[in-house]
Amino acid sequence: NAGVTQTPKFQVLKTGQSMTLQCAQDMNHEYMSWYRQDPGMGLRLIHYSVGAGITDQGEVPNGYNVSRSTTEDFPLRLLSAAPSQTSVYFCASSYQIGYTQYFGPGTRLTVL
Amino acid sequence: ELKVEQNPLFLSMQEGKNYTIYCNYSTTSDRLYWYRQDPGKSLESLFVLLSNGAVKQEGRLMASLDTKARLSTLHITAAVHDLSATYFCAVEYGGTSYGKLTFGQGTILTVHP
Prior knowledge:
Strand content of chain A: over 45%
Oligomer: heterodimer
Order of helices and strands of chain A: EEEEEEEEEEE
Radius of gyration of chain A: 13 Å
């Protein structure tokens, strides 16, 4: 199993550009989530999904969209990048909520 | 709004000593998670605590949950250098917010010889 994979590892964007961060898992997990981690802060939940076709907002959803058309993939879309979105983004998955979460390696995003 | 507070935020320990990290949260929940993060790396799940009184142990780490006090502890026994990392707790909202996790700020642990 590859576990949870994220692409790209690093990305630099200009203000106003859009992009999609990819997240995939090969463990047939129902629950997937996106977090951002900023210096000196814990992780903050952006969006999450408890199964294909079901998504919900987390603590900091503004400026981000998600969709979950398959069990395996959970892409995060930045609609119009802003410098405040400079962060490290982690995707995670678990069999269901209440089970061990497995985290991807992260994407370091810089918005100029 | 669910608030999760860890203390201490910074912990410098000597090898061989014991210490406890505390995780307090503000609203009712009976699901709590502990994670470890090494510098520049991703997070690794340590424990999942799903009920009042739950206790789990792995090596030199032991976690417990008291839902009535809204408190979880991560106890370190006879610390070794390899335990140096940042430790996070995360609490899951209950009820209609099933699946929504809030993280604490993290505790940076440094173990000295």
